[in-house]
Write a structure and sequence with these properties.
Length: about 110
């Protein structure tokens, strides 16, 4: 049995497009994947997180007390975040960013931007 050459070419192009589509999807999902840090039981979880430059990080307060996200360097400062409230910041530059809750100084966290 002989398969027409045009059909082989079509299948090849189709497979190629599928690979490109999958690769593009994986690459973009990786870069824009949102990152979340939860504030619960007076802790940031995870305490340390590594993300790529350009990532928006969202902190979510799951405690019954207000918390803040306050950068040691002054780069970002959320103000009081109430229960179930969130705060987001987009990290453009690589570096290591330490932050605390200004109400509960024992709450500390680190964000590494690559
Ligand atoms: Cu707090």
């Amino acid at each position: 049995m002989r398969i027409p050459r045009s059909r082989v070419a079509l299948a090849f192009v189709g497979a190629l497009l599928l690979i490109v589509a999958l690769y593009t999807r994986v690459a973009s999902a990786d870069e824009t994947a949102p990152a979340q840090i939860v504030m619960k039981d007076f802790k940031f979880t995870p305490m340390s997180l590594t993300v790529k430059a350009g990532t928006t990080v969202t902190w979510a307060n799951k405690d019954d007390e207000p918390h803040t996200v306050t950068s040691d360097s002054g780069l970002f400062r959320s103000g009081a975040i109430d229960t179930d409230g969130t705060y987001s910041f987009r990290f453009e530059r690589p570096g290591t960013y330490h932050f605390t809750c200004s109400i509960h100084p024992q709450m500390v966290g680190t964000l590494v931007v690559q």
